[in-house]
Amino acid sequence: MWFDFFTDYFKGIRKEVVTIAFPNQAALDIYWENGPQLPGWGKVVGKYRNGQPAIVEGYWGNGFVILSGVHPEAPASWRIGMNFRTPCRSTWHMPERW
User: Fold this and answer.
1) DSSP string of 5-22?
2) Are the C-beta atoms of 23 and 98 separated by less than 8 Å?
3) Strands (DSSP E) along 1-98, which ranges?
4) Where are the alpha helices (DSSP H) in the chain?
5) How many CB atoms lie within 10 A of CB 76?
């Protein structure tokens, strides 16, 4: 399956802070760098501000898969020069479902 880039990629933006909305917890600011939107596959776990899926999950074959267009694992060193409302350690604990 092929996915298109998040819309900001087409505005010439290659990395930025994006706010991801989750169904059962507060939104988080997460590092994004050239990541895709993920419509059409799996259950939506998190959404970009344009409503497109940023994080999805589902079964593939005998395994469970999580696809993410953002980098919740990004260390503080990737955040230099960016303004996050969410502290770095907050993105290490993704929604309860995970």
Assistant:
1) BPGGGGGT--EEEEEEEE
2) no
3) 15-22, 25-33, 43-47, 53-60, 63-68
4) none
5) 10
Tokens describing residue 70: 């953002």
**Two structure tokens written together for 15:** 């990395």
Q: Beginning with the edge strand found earlier in the chain, give each strand of the sheet holding 25-33 in spatial order.
A: 25-33, 15-22, 43-47, 53-60, 63-68
Closest CA to 7 of 35, 27, 31: 35
Token code pair at residue 62: 């005998």
Report yes or no: 28 and 90 within 8 Å, Cβ to Cβ.
yes
Q: What is the pLDDT of residues 18-72, one digit of tens each?
A: 999 999 889 999 999 999 999 999 999 999 999 999 999 999 999 999 999 999 9
**Cα–Cα distance for residue pair 49/18, rounded to 1 Å:** 8
pTM of the model: 0.87
Tokens 């290659």 locate to 14
Question: Residue 87: which of 40, 41, 29 has the closest Cα?
Answer: 29
